């Protein structure tokens, strides 16, 4: 449909349009321009603006000359002032005068300008003011002030227009520290009212967050000289939204900015696109670019205004802020906090450290901080030239899991990585789901954002599973097949295998992730559509999941997926049905118990050597060495082994408090524990020796020397080093400079039936400084003996199993075991 120019009367008592008078040629020329195939896009908007300029300039010149008026000018403001006139855009006009004209003659001149516009059925926003009145109105109304920033002379006295424009910019820059927070508040209020353009099926191209209004606000911020938006892709994104609005105006014949469902196909066809999904994806990509630019810009505005709010004399007295330098607080190796952002350390070299981008992202998300734009761009440049090896090194995989497990703070960091193209470089399969629309009204988000939201929801459920890393990665990948033809679960299974292998998971873990992706809809569909009393129903689910651990992972994934879909996708009723099904399937699987993988391994020759030396000397013996990860590929591929950290072995003659003392010493030396095992040996028959095998990594900086660790361990065991006090002091300092990450509470349970010789206490908690020390102290206080332990840190989650006995060396009674679990959980809370 093409636009029709309507001939409508103006308000009652107004002079009618002049019909075929000299200005009467404008309607026909305007219609020809809009019906022509060329030009389109920016060229057509500029051509329409020039055509309208000529018509309005002629009206002013003719009628002002006839009335003998001087000292007047016609000024375009707003979008028309920018020379961007869409087919049904308002005409924003200001009749400027020097205050000396006769009011009656001035009113008559205004009528001769406004009524021909109304006669054509065009919307008009108009005013008649002196420069002083215009500046006063701008001071009182932010929207007026923003409009004047785009003021453009059309006709009349050019000096009058130029003087107003110069004064408007001077006023804006002077008042910007006060007006920018007001503008930001308006943008936020509009976003809450209209929603986010990049996720809406029927978005308002102008008013929604990431729309044309936000792009205009960014221009105003740049004009203030206080901050500027990232330029990459911003103008192209704004142009695409304007082109879409033009097509919408032409297909509907109305001045509308809402892209309704029934208009999608026509607008896509008018823009020469394949289908409406391509239209929505382009619209979402454009909105995402503008939203990201807005986030970065408003963050910079806040930083500048906070800096200005501190008086110069006081600024020099603040710690770390002298000479314009902010305090740098380490977050991770190569990453520090500076002025409320996560930035790269001065010594960081992303071109030599391909894991740095994931480490920085994980550190930022865990600290609840934005990742600085310049840090992302440095990493993006480096990773383009020096990509991560495939399969990924173990640290990269762990940092990805840490990022995904940060809860709501994951979202802005992930979006920043996406905006700079890093996600698709790390995970090429992500491209097919990026900005992909979902037309099911149950869904709140696009496919890619839904995947990230599912990981966010899953992070709150990590205490329910013993492999949170598999849960989080499966959450990120469960709908990855939606970018491919056919059943997305079937396609997704294949893609998930490829991605999991790329991330460096071994064959067993890869199979679990693929199973979770393939069957992520199985539980909810079975629970709500099948008879749970039918043994075949339960049997089919049991055959699909095969094991209780996969079942518990699938249960958590099902809930996270539904919660991330939208409010209509999950309810107490659905949750109850799924829980009932899971209980029945677990009972069925229990008839075929899984092998006991929690038992202690046989000691290595190095462990036995250290145990002999410790037994002979009667004191701790330590050994540090680089540890390599076994190859995960096929045997005929013979992949090289991969260093995954440092293995620290400790052998200590058995005595009370060894575990909390050793864990406390590691925490004091800022060593992150990735995994650990504990076992007892008696190699020379002179008493048991406790052997602790740690896989550790420095949070930042270099590793401590083994001799220093040994000295502190001796002091901790003899009581001369007060570890609890030192850790408490560090936690207080950390709390003062860090934001609180909302993590699910710790969960401590008794793993019934896991061992015949000991009681297994399982701890699932947020990894933190001194966590193992607190657990060890709680177990010591409870009066139980730790016979062995298996510690694993999966991203930001600790999943630990402690094999404990009573003083008689036998497993604990059920009641006593529950009391120990409750005591440990209370200590961690």
From TrEMBL:
SMART domains: HDc. Its EC number is 2.7.7.59, 3.1.4.-. It catalyses: [protein-PII]-uridylyl-L-tyrosine + H2O = [protein-PII]-L-tyrosine + UMP + H(+); [protein-PII]-L-tyrosine + UTP = [protein-PII]-uridylyl-L-tyrosine + diphosphate. Keywords: Hydrolase, Magnesium, Multifunctional enzyme, Nucleotidyltransferase, Repeat, Transferase. SUPFAM superfamilies: ACT-like (SSF55021), HD-domain/PDEase-like (SSF109604), Nucleotidyltransferase (SSF81301), Nucleotidyltransferase substrate binding subunit/domain (SSF81593). One of its GO terms (molecular function) is [protein-PII] uridylyltransferase activity. Residues 447-548 form the HD domain. Uridylyltransferase (UTase) activity is inhibited by glutamine, while glutamine activates uridylyl-removing (UR) activity. Residues 1-330 are annotated as: Uridylyltransferase. Has four distinct domains: an N-terminal nucleotidyltransferase (NT) domain responsible for UTase activity, a central HD domain that encodes UR activity, and two C-terminal ACT domains that seem to have a role in glutamine sensing. PANTHER family: BIFUNCTIONAL URIDYLYLTRANSFERASE/URIDYLYL-REMOVING ENZYME (PTHR47320), BIFUNCTIONAL URIDYLYLTRANSFERASE_URIDYLYL-REMOVING ENZYME (PTHR47320:SF1). HAMAP family: PII_uridylyl_transf. Belongs to the GlnD family. This is Bifunctional uridylyltransferase/uridylyl-removing enzyme.
